Amino acid sequence: MSGPILVVEGIHKSYGTRRILDVPVLTLAAGESYVLTGENGSGKSTLLRVLAGLEHAEVVACRYDGRPVDLGNYPDWLRRDLIYVHQHPYLFRGSIFDNICYGLRARGLIKASYEPLVREAIAWAGVGALLDVPPHKLSGGEKQRVALARARVLQPRIFLLDEPTANLDAEARQQAIKLISDLCDANRTVVLACHDREIIELPRMNRLNMGRGAIETWNGGAVCV
Ligand SMILES: Nc1ncnc2c1ncn2[C@@H]1O[C@H](COP(=O)(O)OP(=O)(O)OP(=O)(O)O)[C@@H](O)[C@H]1O
Ligand SMILES: [Mg+2]
């Protein structure tokens, strides 16, 4: 197994008297894939959102690539390396192309630089035939594929995917699984929250099971305590 890319110690979060997260240590190895399982309400989305800096939790210490990081004061450079894809991705007005190139333009890339990357992401996600469809008219599965392309084009080191196959029909689900499996094979670090048996059973997938806010069991390596 490769070295750790992210180590978070002492993750705690409560709502009132309800403890939502109580994780002593979470260690993610570079290039590994993890699936977070657990009952509804067990804290999977909350954990992903805390890692992505979208939600606050008490954290004792965090190291990214060996460098101390304050998740409570989330650094912009970390947002470039770690991307969260929502279960129901929000696509903004404009075109699919605009949605996928947005992050690259925000990073200051000129059209000649971003256009080939966006074209490649469109081909990867298999959304080339949909480019004239307004994003709000896309189906759930199509939106999910655009969102995966929009994340991948930014070449993050860690993908956090929240229930990427939930509520998709059989064909859309298979298309999403193929993209996810491809990300996992491409030596990206991928953490997915999901209940999808086929994803859980993908080769090389490390399973982290959440219960009562803690990570109870795992396999495929010494991942969590
Ligand atoms: N703002 C809030 N106030 C109080 N409780 C909250 C709030 N947000 C989330 N929770 C609770 O936190 C718990 C964890 O929610 P979370 O969405 O992380 O679960 P999950 O494992 O992703 O569930 P699912 O499988 O349904 O997606 C839930 O019991 C939820 O009710
Ligand atoms: Mg959830």
Query: If you compute it from the alpha carbons, what radius of gyration comes out, rounded to the nearest whole angstrom?
Result: 17 Å
Measured as a percent range, the helix fraction is: 25-40%
Bound molecules: adenosine-5'-triphosphate, magnesium ion
In CATH, the homologous superfamily goes by the name P-loop containing nucleotide triphosphate hydrolases
Give the CA-CA distance, first to last residue. 17 Å
In the CATH classification, which architecture applies? Answer: 3-Layer(aba) Sandwich
Chain-averaged pLDDT: 92
Instruction: State the major sheet.
Output: 6 strands, mixed
Structural class by secondary-structure content: alpha/beta
Structure description:
This protein is an alpha/beta fold and 225 residues long. The chain has one domain: 3-Layer(aba) Sandwich (Rossmann fold). The protein has helices spanning 44-51, 76-81, 96-106, 111-125, 140-152, 170-185, 197-200; strands at residues 4-15, 18-29, 33-37, 58-64, 67-68, 82-85, 158-162, 189-193, 205-211, 214-218. The strands form 2 sheets. A 6-stranded mixed β-sheet has the order 6-7-8-3-9-10, sandwiched between helices. The chain has a 4-stranded antiparallel β-sheet with strand order 2-1-4-5, with no helix packed on it. A hairpin with a 2-residue loop joins strand 1 (4-15) and strand 2. It starts with a strand and ends in a 7-residue tail after the last strand. Adenosine-5'-triphosphate binds next to helix 1.
